[in-house]
Amino acid sequence: MSSLFRKYAVSRDYPVLMLLLVVALGLIFLANDQTQNGPAQRVAVDLMGRLAVPLGTLVELRHLKSENEDLRLENARLRLEQLRLREAELENVRLRRLLHLDYLNRYDALPARVLGRNRIGIHTLVVSVGKSNGVVEHMPVISSDGLVGKILHAGESASTVHLLADRNFRVAARVRRSRAEGIFQWLEGDEGELAGVHHRADVAVGDTIVTSGMSSIFPKGLPVGIASRVEIGQSVLFQQIRVRPTVDFDRLEEVTILRSGWNTLADPFEFRPAGF
């Protein structure tokens, strides 16, 4: 409000000061035509002296206003640059995590950016590579945290990824510690289950669930999730094992497609993302 008032006051007083300046100059010229300094000349000189300070202030205010506008623009530009650099720094961290996976050195791995997400019907991602990059249907898709899904459809320059976090997705999996095997499938909410594990199998909360390799699509050893709840009923054959995924599907920005190489993997159990 104060800045608005100052702006109004300056714009209101400026014409008045200019009028007084014209009057003062007119009085000086009028007095110069007289043979002696008269009252008109003294009034004019006094008026000019009084006008000098507010006129100087007006000029200074206009200069400061221009400087403030320039500083605001520069501040906005620097802020945008800071945000851009921060995003680039975070992206570099994510990419370094992918590059440091020794597991990828054994594959023909192709990095890709996430372009979009779909949670209506089949849960999918759209990624930035396609047939022109050698991508075909059913290729595994991973992140630095584990299994993401598989290629559902490959376009010329972009592809659709069928997510692990979809009720129609299935993958053969096992408990890393005890090697107990089952089938991972997604449930409602933010968890899946490891189904088909015998009630006598050794499974505990906190166990890491990985792909078993009992598939022509997925290599073994890819982290799927962490066992978050294990229940063994008295009259049932299989355990109820809830699994929390290792991948945060809502925050994925980069993924890696494994184009080939897993069938010749010598020791696929070496995959260890950060924290596992």
Blueprint of the fold:
Elements: H1 2-32, H2 39-99, E1 109-118, E2 124-127, E3 140-143, E4 146-154, E5 159-163, E6 170-175, E7 181-186, E8 192-195, E9 208-211, E10 223-231, E11 240-245, E12 254-258
Antiparallel strand pairs: 1-2, 1-12, 2-5, 3-4, 3-12, 4-5, 6-7, 6-9, 7-8, 8-11, 9-10, 10-11
Condensed summary:
With 276 residues, this protein is of the alpha+beta class. The protein contains 2 helices and 12 strands; from the N terminus they run ααββββββββββββ. α1 (2-32) runs antiparallel to α2 (39-99).
Strand order of the largest sheet: 1-2-5-4-3-12
- SSE ordering: HHEEEEEEEEEEEE
Proportion of beta-strand residues: 25-35%
Helix content: 25-40%
Number of helices: 2
Rounded to the nearest angstrom, the radius of gyration is 37 Å
> In terms of per-residue confidence, which ranges show pLDDT below 50 for 5 or more consecutive residues?
1-10, 263-276
Instruction: Kindly state the number of beta strands.
Output: 12
Structural class: alpha+beta
Number of domains: 3
Average per-residue pLDDT, rounded, comes to 77
**What's the story with the biggest beta sheet?**
6 strands, antiparallel, barrel
First CA to last CA: what distance?
57 Å
Tertiary shape: elongated
Describe the structure.
This protein is of the alpha+beta class and 276 residues long. It contains two helices and twelve strands; from the N terminus they run ααββββββββββββ. It folds into three domains: 2-97; 109-164 and 250-263, Thrombin, subunit H (Beta Barrel); 166-246, Rod shape-determining protein MreC, domain 2 (Thrombin, subunit H, Beta Barrel). The chain is 33% helix and 26% strand. The model is unreliable at 1-10 and 263-276 (pLDDT under 50).
